[in-house]
């Protein structure tokens, strides 16, 4: 049994993301691309607590209903790899920027084999970023990776992370 009950947090994170998207005003127009680096432990069902390193590119270009493209790439300490493409929202709440996101991702677990039943995954998350300068922000976030029950083989990754974001 994992020490951190992430399965209980998933509905809360999804609900918070929806409420923020509905209630918070959109962030001021900022069409600059942002680059994010983060690290955090995997608190998912494996109980491994392996660090997960993530790099993201967040486009400043709005594509639909205020949503923007996000491209992510994550690696684990044991060679697991996750690459995703999706959409994110950008909302202000006081000085904070809140960015719920969703991606379709491809996943390989790093155990030396390639299991096609776990290839397709979905990544949902939320980040809260606080500005340090006009171009740099730091923050905390959470993301969950699973295959939404398509098969019985799911990545089941839950990451609570610390992030640094640069806008150019």
TrEMBL record:
Keywords from the named record: Signal
InterPro entries: Lipid-A_deacylase-rel
Pfam family for this entry, one: PagL
Protein's UniProt keywords contain Signal: yes
UniProt superkingdom: Bacteria
Keyword Signal: yes
Signal peptide region: 1-29
Protein name: Acyloxyacyl hydrolase
Organism: Rhodobaculum claviforme
Origin organism lineage: Bacteria, Pseudomonadati, Pseudomonadota, Alphaproteobacteria, Rhodobacterales
